[in-house]
Design brief:
2 copies of one chain form a homodimer.
Chain A lengths: L2 E2 L10 E6 L12 E16 L7 H9 L4 E9 L9 H16 L6 E6 L9 H12 L5 H7 L8 E9 L2 E10 L12 E6 L5 H14 L15 E6 L13 H23 L7 E9 L2 H13 L1 H8 L6 H8 L11 E6 L2 E7 L2 E2 L4 H8 L3 E7 L5 E8 L3 H8 L4
Parallel strand pairs in A: 4-5, 8-9, 10-14
Antiparallel strand pairs in A: 1-6, 2-3, 3-4, 3-9, 6-7, 7-8, 10-15, 11-12, 11-14, 12-13
């Protein structure tokens, strides 16, 4: 019933967006300022990085959404506004600019920044760009998605429609983030809009539950960013009966939300810095949900396995190794491992021991761009999926000299 | 008083060693079988990997050293003898071969293997190599050090002399390991000999205390190996009064042991797979020892910082980021960061905020092969040091196709 549609964050009723180049980034082809505005105040829920070093915009956003409502999102790329003495002042200044140019109260603005840490962010280019940014507000989800990109190679937006209490609702999102990705309660930056009617409390509950299975199971490089922010705004304009307790509609809403967040996880992992392959580790048969998550994430995080996948080398010992130090409770003698892709599958380990397999077939399986690492723990009934990417020369290149 | 001397594991009285090529590895230039034998049974202490997937040799060694004594070490490279159905049988076979060729009881043999996981290890080449291996037993620590190398580019051996209760004692070591390095109670493979007289209990105590500050603070790639083994044998032939309780001699012994293990940590990190730089993160001013260790290790483990160091880019925001997600209790607004090397030093962050610095000077500092990342938490009196290396194209290359 969840159906992909076009429109990104503008697909749900009541949202407009735009993105422009205002001059924070030197490269004039790259947009660096995005704005999403809602027709009316929306129920809002956010999750942020667990990093103790938090970007100044997060501190300001936390205050602004404390009452459960927000009406706009302003985001810049090219500078994270983090570890700067005047960071909070600048972030507040961005909210004030939104009020000045749109009439939406500064206290109803979600603000976010992404880019280099520890370099001063000037308000001037943002102020200079506001006229153009606001003039272009409309069905421009794509421009907004482009404006929040840093080392991303593709823009990331998606939208779905789904029925809720007899009404058709829509949910859409844009996001960015390809390095410093190991979200813990949130990813780099992701903004979700929906026209479903749902109370702030239920929206918060849905988001918290969702990230455990979606964004917190994603890792590009094990580096939890300082600026991770995931924000969802619900306008309620779809006309469904407001969700105020965990009923069937709540479940339907969560399912749609999950469709958005897992699709975005796959986008983010596939576009991981330098990545040539999307890796998906599916763990089944774990003793508990926690064990399943620990196991899946440990495999996805192994530099050695990531490099082997880049080299299309079925070095399954590295999967076993990563499972062994994952912290998950497991019985090594029960573990089965297979690699799968569009080109087929190959079982490489059973009962914790290697099995004969064709290196030729394995090479073919691993030559694809999407690889599933199938781990059967055969020790329980819980499962989890984690997403990541391979480790390549280009990851090193991109991060060897990011600031210049 | 601890003085570097030559001789490696043969520097202490009562030890002979050798290393040969027996045919486990295809490349005939590479030695692949090492043996260390002691004149008499030695007090022994070992620490092993915490990985739940454990190499078969570890299971056999644990049994053999359970009584606190051992007299020989046999090690092969080229195959980890891990995740093989007949692994324990093969490891026992290696001990039996030592008994057959040297007369040392199989139950007094420490056995270790290193190389690819999940490929069958045949006893045949080892049996074939025993005659040559034993015939050459002597002051051949270097040959043994060479025979345990895998992707190591340099052999790793060291020895020191130190006074103990009026007697001159010696301690020496060989070790290997440049990838799958994030020891947890042990590193890949390290064998230490000493002629100091010390009881098995005190030797175990000294080793357990030592690794917390030495090998457990080393990380090349965050991948805790399945075969980590650190073994120390004490022959007692130096003639000092046996250490049986934690007296001044015990402290002097621990100091000498620390000299060996930290020197080896630096060797291992410097030769990390693909590494061009040794990174040393020195944390001071932490609230507790645990916080200091967590902070130092988190910095050393950050792929993003490792890549920045490779690129000689003073991207200190990545240091702050890694500290923030380290799990250490810290006050972000008190943190100071400086980079130091032979070429000088540069302070890049104070009170959690960036400070003006010369990019030119920073580049010069970071162009050296040994970089100290100096982190002052200014929040307590505890410190810790962690060792690691940069992340380079060659790490990816080496691990993209390790098995072939």
């Amino acid at each position: 019933m969840v159906k992909e549609i076009s429109g990104g964050v503008c697909a749900p009723k009541g949202f407009k967006a735009n993105g422009v180049h205002c001059g924070i980034r030197k490269n004039k082809i790259k947009k660096d300022l995005a704005l999403i505005v809602a027709e009316k105040r929306c129920a809002v829920a956010c999750v942020y990085t667990t990093n103790l070093v938090k970007g100044a915009p997060i501190l300001v956003t936390q205050k602004n959404v404390a009452d459960g409502y927000a009406q706009a999102v302003i985001v810049n790329s090219g500078n994270a506004n983090t570890c700067n003495a005047d960071g909070v002042e600048i972030a507040k200044g961005m909210c004030a600019l939104v009020e000045q140019y749109t009439g939406i109260a500064a206290g109803d603005v979600v603000v976010a920044s992404t880019g280099v840490i520890g370099q001063k962010l000037s308000l001037q280019p943002i102020a200079d760009g506001m006229t153009e940014l606001c003039a272009g507000l409309g069905e421009n989800s794509t421009a907004a998605a482009e404006a929040i990109m840093t080392t991303d190679t593709v823009k990331k937006e998606i939208s779905f429609s789904f029925p809720l209490g007899g009404k058709e609702c829509r949910i859409g999102a844009i996001c960015k983030g390809v390095g410093m990705i190991c979200p813990n309660m949130a990813t780099m930056l992701m903004f979700v809009t929906t026209d479903a009617a749902i109370s702030p409390d239920m929206l918060k509950r849905a988001l918290r539950a969702d990230v455990k299975e979606s964004l917190n199971m994603l890792s590009v490089d094990r580096d939890t960013s300082t600026n991770d922010t995931l924000c969802i705004m619900a306008s309620g304009l779809a006309g469904n009966e407001e969700i105020t307790y965990p009923n069937a509609d709540y479940k339907a809403f969560c399912k749609a939300l999950r469709a958005v967040t897992t699709a975005m996880c796959r986008c983010l992992a596939r576009d991981g810095e330098g990545a040539t392959k999307l890796l998906e580790c599916k763990v089944s048969g774990a003793k508990s949900k926690k064990d399943a998550r620990l196991a899946a994430k440990s495999v996805i995080n192994s530099n050695l396995l990531k490099a082997a996948m880049f080299g299309q080398d079925a070095n399954w010992g590295r999967v076993l190794c990563a499972l062994g130090y994952s912290g998950a409770k497991l019985d090594v003698t029960k573990i089965g491992v297979a690699f799968r892709s569009k080109a087929g599958g190959v079982t490489v380990c059973e009962n914790g021991m290697g099995v004969e397999f064709s290196e030729e077939v394995a090479k073919k399986v691993l030559s694809e761009q999407e690889i599933v690492i199938d781990v059967q723990l055969n020790d329980g009934r819980y499962g989890a999926t984690a997403w990541g990417c391979d480790l390549t020369y280009d990851y090193v290149k991109i991060n060897g000299d990011y600031r210049t």
